[in-house]
Amino acid sequence: EVIVLETPAEAGAFVAAHIAAQVRREPTFTLGVATGSTPLPVYEGLRAERDTGTDFTRMSAFALDEYVGLPAGHPESYRAVVDREVTGPLGLDPARVRVPDGSAEGIETAGERYEAAIEAHGGVDLQLLGIGRTGHLGFNEPGSSFGSLTRVKTLTERTRLDNARFFDSLDEVPIHCVTQGLGTILRARHLVLLAFGEGKAEALAAAVEGPVSASMPGSAIQLHQRVTVVVDEAAASQLR
Ligand code: F6R
User: Fold this and answer.
1) Cα–Cα distance between 201 and 169 in angstroms, integer?
2) CATH tag for 2-238 (out of 3.40.50.150, 3.40.50.1010, 3.30.1490.20, 3.40.50.1360)
3) CA 161, CA 156: separation in Å to the nearest integer?
4) What SUPFAM superfamilies does the record tag this protein with (predicted)?
5) Atom of ligand 1 nearest to the CA of 36
6) What is the ipTM of this complex?
7) Would the pTM count as exceeding 0.90?
8) At what angle do helices 8-25 and 40-51 cross, to 10 degrees?
């Protein structure tokens, strides 16, 4: 299902209202959180839902990915972003908010440990996703296997340049990340893919309507039974 709304704020409020309704029915709901700019309007919407009485405090969360090797507490680490945008404001129990471990020590087991944590928890109910201009989901760049699980990956130069806006310089953008695999993402019970702005139009159209191919990681969503795509008009502009 593709839903086109006028602005990112409207899209965020729409998705947040859906999540809040689920959480009111099932307080131990598990949300898969993404980072980057795209999901921020959803988190704003969730804070508005909190203000009007939805209790999120029993919800759990699993993040999609994390940079490797940023110093602990770095404000642009995805752990810090999730804490700032979601855990703190919604009052989640920090013990129920998981982010892949991007610290250099033990990096070789970070993927396995994260998969085990998701599995022991019973999986993710709704996974929020953004899409990169390369078509990546999480940091699964073109060529990633549709069966892949959480593992260490190298960021493409395109993605490092795109993410440099969050750092003081390109040199500070990590080279590696730990990301859920496409196979991990496809196990979530509901996928919600968001995209805003013209810069995403081409990748979005290829993901939604193009051939299913490892050269377009976003096209993996076509293999899932329950996907909602929520976009603004600019991002929808290349859909047929
Ligand atoms: C973030 C993530 C990435 C982003 C994508 C889009 O956790 O995994 O796939 O969703 O890079 O980034 P933004 O939203 O900043 O355009």
Assistant:
1) 27
2) 3.40.50.1360
3) 9
4) NagB/RpiA/CoA transferase-like (SSF100950)
5) 15
6) 0.98
7) yes
8) 50
